[in-house]
Amino acid sequence: MNTINKLLATTAFLALSNSAFATVATYNITTTWFEPDTQPKNTYFVGSFNYDSTTKTITSLAGKLSEAMTGSVNYNASTGINGADNMTWLSLNYQLVSWYDASLGGTFAATFKNNSTNTFWTGAGGNGWSPASGVAAGGIYYGFPSAGANPGNAYALIFVPDNPLTVLTQAQINKLAYADCSAGGIMGASCMTGTSASGYGSVGTMSGYPLSQVISMTTVPVPEPETYAMLLLGLAFMGLSSRQKTLSR
Amino acid sequence: MPRLSSGAVTHMKTHSKYQPVKLSASVQLSVIFLTLASSPSYADTAEVSAALDIPVVEVEGVRAHSVPLSGKEISERDIKTRSSTTLDTTRLLEDIPGLTVNEAGAISALPAIHGLADERLKIQVDGMDLSAACPNHMNSILSYINPVKVGSVKAFTGITPVSEGGDSIGGTIQVSSLSPVFAEVGKQLINGSVGTFYRSNGYAHGWNASAGFATDQLSFQYSESHLSSSNYRAAKNFKDASTWAPVLRNGLEKTDLDEVGSSSISGSVNKSLDMAFKRDGHLFQLGISQQSVGFEGFPNQRMDMTNNENTSFNFRYTGLFDWGDLNLKLFRQRVKHAMDMSYERSYAMPAMPMLSESQTEGGSLTASLPFLNDHLFKVGGDFKLYKLDDWWPPVQGMGPGAMCCNNFWNVRNGKRDRVGIFAEVESNWTEDWVTSLGVRTDMINADAGKVQGYSAGLYQTDANTFNAKSQGRRDQNYDWTALARYTPDRTQSYELGLARKSRSPSVYELYPWSSFTMAALMNNLVGDGNAYIGNMSLDPEIAHTANISADWHDENRSVWAAKANAYLTYVDNYIDAVRCTLASCGAANTTKTNGFVTLQYENHAAKLYGLDLSAYRVLANDGQLGQWTAKSMIGYVRGENTRTGDNLYHIMPLNGRFTLEHKLGGWTSQAEVQMVSAKTHVSAVRNETETDGYGLLNLRTSYSNKFMKVDLSLENALNKLYYSPLGGAYLGQGFSMTSGIIPWGINVPGMGRSANVAVTFFY
């Protein structure tokens, strides 16, 4: 009987659960940096992340970053990555840094191409990846002067307001940044970057700067009638098997 | 008072009106151009006479005009007062009315005549009709001759006779080396010089030496010069620390707030061997010159010259015959040129290597034939074959993208071949009237090969568009000039000139093809910081010019003289620029007013007009106190695009030079005030920035005798911070491959106070 009770309780919880009660949710994100020198193409980060509204933490930030110096047609959101555009896209699957910024009222997170934050030359100081250290290093790649030592890293730094679905203020947009030190994003020893003069003291190495960011909630699937039917069937089956076990004693 | 026409200087046989003359302060030749002007080193009858040892007849009269009234010739003496402390030969031209200087690198400034600059002019060095071989014209024509080697400068600023022009609409500048010297019969001559100079601003320094050996028929002259300089400094801080903070990154070489980045030069070496042989009225000259520059910064360009090697062979022949005279010139020049960025622009090298190689072969043949005693018929032809490759190697260690993995071909197998013929008649109708009429035609064939970018994708659309078109083209241009001079008496002359002149577009106006900002920013001939795309559909520029000159003076020109020159030029198909409307140039490109933009060359129409005034007066001439002379020169030019109503770019506003000169024995001293008014007529399409007016004081003194020469000067003596209207945009530091990092709206400042000294010894 205990088993049945546990089962019923679990089932009830499952049946009643919906997002309104969850603290972790999945969101889609598209961040755009305007690239005056590679028009009509811009740099886009298109990805997703999980956000815990209780702890205000971002996890599993991952997505793709476009290389505006490749291809000739700009990204079109309605047709998706490489739907209309012919740019190269880098996969950024390693969320290695994230922090909460109380003054801006939100959480930063950066996802990298490599499982390492080593992006920029550290000869000018800095931590080797932050936008500020990138500006100080003139965007020069990590491992300079040995081209072979360049790990070819890339990242996108995004910002999630306390309420992820609110529109970003200009001050928040100013802090968005990307870097691309991979083959298609490098000019000589300089990585292609996107930063704002207001946020970091300089625009990016190809004059790119953050333009906008759109966050939308991942659509939560609503269970269909057959799902409930299966659930009831399963419960009936479990109840039946439990009853069989009791009877067999 | 005999009047002598310009004429063939015959050997031991003279036409009644074509006798060789030694020009003294009192010879009046009723001529417009001298016979041998087609050989710049020998454009002056007296020079040829001296070189060929022809008996000289001294005649009282005024000095001959070897250029029209509207032009000017600078004598060797005047050149020498400046050349020792000057890095750039173009600076020697600043005393020519109507001539201004567009700033560039330390030795590569570009002259402009009446608002028309660079390739709109015909610029010759020792008769060689050269062209730059660089998408920024860094190896400009006058950068190939060191100032200390210059012996004469001629500028045809108003109407250029067809024998001196062709394929140019703005005038002609002829810079020539010192003439060869020969020993007296039966003797030998050994001469030489060694000199050094120092300029305090930028610690510029250099040395030069020459050695010569000559008999009465042979002359050998070897000369060599070296110079280098650090960045120069403006009079005061011109960089706002907060504006420049993003640029002054830790990764870049530090510059002070008054330091003009990328303005240094090092490893600049000129070597030349000049040989001459003369016999019986024939003069043969062979010049071999080599020039190399290790590094030359360009504060108004996005790149710097990291290497330039130029080798030229130049053969000239002048023959004097009973029937007239003959001039033949043949030359060949090869240039290897490299660009990249200074460490003030990029911490990492190579940042963006760019290479070009060019070969120019040219020559001319001119015959001058006196007839009917009062007329001179000149007929001849010239040619110039120019080949250019301009490519940018990929930077290794990268994958396909902006700068990998193929050569970027900016101009591949570029070609511009010109062949021209001309005929000209100078006529002395009466004692008072002289005319010159000339016609010429030039055929210009230009072509270029197919192109590619560093990689497909980013560059492919533009490359496909370019490659789908036919690059070959042919222009047949026709020019004429008509000039009349009226000299009613020995104190005044008036000259009216009319001309039609043509210029076909250059390789760098036709063929640069990429609209990708980084690539287009590298194609810029004018130092405005903008990006330029070529246009294969350009038509030749055709200029119609009217020029009127007047010259008043006392009989012997020993007390005073004043000259006025007014001109009006309409240029059909004037090659101006329009904002690029391609998607790749961005939607904001057409409306931006406060930043660097992408432009494409396009034929429009233009009108230029202005006035040159120059005068001198001897204030006192006392044997003990020396001679005091006041000199003045005022210039004004307006340039408008009549199609768009815009102003033309880089037009000098009202300006003047006022000089007090003192001469006593071997001393020549000058106090010069240069005044320039504000530049408010600016080119909107280029987002040209205005400049304020200013005044500068320059002090110079020079002492020379048979064995030595000492020059001292204090330039910008009051240490005034100023911005030349023709200085261009300041781009001397910061990552320059992109349009948005270097702050826009700052002009290149002029040099702050500089004390210069030069010492030269002769033997």
TrEMBL record, chain A:
The chain positions of domain Ice-binding protein C-terminal read 221-243
Q: Which residues form the signal peptide?
A: 1-22
Carries keyword Cell inner membrane?
Answer: no
The record's keywords, sorted A to Z, are: Signal
Classification via Pfam families = PEP-CTERM
* Protein name as it appears in the record: PEP-CTERM sorting domain-containing protein
Species name? Merismopedia glauca CCAP 1448/3
UniProtKB/TrEMBL annotation, chain B:
Bilayer disposition of the protein? Multi-pass membrane protein
The UniProt entry's GO biological process terms, in alphabetical order, are: siderophore transmembrane transport
Alphabetically, the GO molecular function entries are: siderophore uptake transmembrane transporter activity
- Looking at the record, the residues that make up the TonB-dependent receptor plug domain are 67-172
Keyword Heme set for record: no
Q: Which domain of life is it from?
A: Bacteria
Enumerate the spans annotated as TonB-dependent receptor-like beta-barrel domain. 280-716
Give the main location.
Answer: membrane
Q: Which GO terms describe its cellular component?
A: cell outer membrane
Q: Which residues form the signal peptide?
A: 1-43
Question: Cross-referenced PROSITE patterns, in alphabetical order?
Answer: TONB_DEPENDENT_REC_3
Compartments it resides in: Cell outer membrane
Q: Which UniProt keywords apply?
A: Cell outer membrane, Membrane, Receptor, Signal, TonB box, Transmembrane, Transmembrane beta strand, Transport
* Family statement: Belongs to the TonB-dependent receptor family.
Please identify the protein, giving its name as recorded.
TonB-dependent receptor
What species was this sequence derived from? Merismopedia glauca CCAP 1448/3
